Amino acid sequence: MNKQQAYPIGKQGKPWGNEEKQQWFALQSVKRSYYDEVITKINALKSDFEIQQYGALPIDEQRYPLFILKSKTFDHAKKTVLVTGGVHGYETSGVQGALLFAKEHAHRYESAFNFLVAPCLSPWGYETINRWNPNAIDPNRSFYKNSPAEESAALISYLSSLKVSLFAHFDLHETTDSDNAEFRPALAARDATVHDNWNIPDGFYLVGNTLEPQADFQKAIIENVKKVTHIAAADENSQLIGSPVTQPGVINYSAREYGLCMGLSDAKFVTTTEVYPDSPKVSSQQCNLAQVAVITGGLDYILTDETV
């Protein structure tokens, strides 16, 4: 796909109003179970973590509670690490990778770190395989004061209540072919804009924070992920998704400016992952393991960095 695609909702050149957003919502349907695929795995970790509910989505509070896994031995003298998944609900390996890390790897680092693992920030999006929330809002453009996205606002409020400074934040995402087939055309229609970049890299890459890029940290993560899956190559313009490549497999975004999840704190070490699950070279398990490799690679770097 290399040109603007027509979208069945709205009129060309006119941003959506409430009527169009309701039309969009009416087209969405549940395709998988948040309870079966996420909540049951969270509950299975109750012997290892304190499970805290930090909110619920108003569309159905019983169906869509929001949970975070908190270290049972939470010590304010330790560095605190946040892992977030499912900010975009359709990005499966972000959710499952966060859960896999909590289940199989977090215990190896508990002597040095406190963990907060929020595996699925957007459970309605998870069930309907959506980038947006029920109000056609992108949670990963909504991490700012008085956020219009309940998913983003709930996490911001919870973290504020803890009164703890984050030292590292791993935000787990995917880039899928459905970005071009559905989500970018929908975004262009909603906002009455034209998109001229339809590039989807084949492979894994990272997005660092422009204000705190931590190049060596990002490099260490890439080296660890290489053991699991392939890294996306830059295009003919030395870019990935329209952004300059700063080193193999790494680009930077202005996290606060765009309201990204990775910009919600002043953490020193921050990265956003982008797994490509539609590549013929990978399996779903490899995608989950790549997300885990990001966290373990980043934590190992922090533990060995003499400047930390």
From TrEMBL:
PROSITE patterns: PEPTIDASE_M14
InterPro entries on file: DUF2817, Peptidase_M14
Superkingdom of the source species: Bacteria
Peptidase M14 domain residues: 31-308
Membrane spanning residue stretches: none
Family: Belongs to the peptidase M14 family.
Official protein name in the record: M14 family metallocarboxypeptidase
Organism: Thalassotalea castellviae
